[in-house]
Amino acid sequence: MTGTIDASDRSDASHPETIDWNAFWRDADESDREYATPSTHHVRDLLAQFFDAKGVPESFADVGCGPGVVAFHVAREHPDTTVYGYDAATSIVAENRERAATDEISNVHFEQAALPDLDIDRQFDTVLCYGTMSYVADSAAALRALYDAVEPGGHLVLGYVNDGYRRHLQRILDDPVGHGKDPDAFDAAEFERRWRLVLDGESTLTYEAIHDAVGTWPRSFWEVADYPEERWAWEDVPIVWLPK
Length: 244
What we know:
Blueprint: H1 21-27, H2 30-35, H3 39-42, H4 47-54, E1 59-63, H5 69-77, E2 82-87, H6 90-102, E3 108-112, E4 124-129, H7 139-148, E5 150-159, H8 163-174, H9 188-194, H10 196-199, H11 207-214, E6 219-220, H12 232-235, E7 239-243
Helix pairs in contact: 7-11
């Protein structure tokens, strides 16, 4: 494993219609990284409860892994699990590979791949995608790609935003100061560009839309895990799991 991108990696596809993730991760400071990695706070520790209920997977993939917070965590907690992190940005994939090599974590691997096509050549017992679907216009194709990456008998764990979150973002855009934004720092044009697909309702999802895409009804993650304190995390930004 190296810190460079080899010839087998796919071409960089960073969803430039909303945000250029390749440039973002290359230049992001600590605050930017934390903001852009919601799985750190909302998924990482909850996965232990999911694994308790469904069993520790032999293989695990995090699609849209960013700096690999969840992938590294699962790899460390479960050294017998083969872990893959996929991200659209070659810059963060290279950084994650270098970190894995430096820390000598041999069961975690990182590759470049982007939704909606994904185009990976293996399946996993558990596939996680959190904080990523908001930036993908063709939700149905992305959902099918994610579900195709799950082994029969495995599970897809999916985080998405619904229309409630779209309304929340619109309220921020309409009244940033009233929602705690610094008027000197808030860039309305950049905010609108980053969240354009959500604001336009193109990347918001429902249980019905997920079912229509993959033919399986999603189930609430809170069937197997405790509700978080942040109410929005289970109203406007649901987490679901789909058996296969």
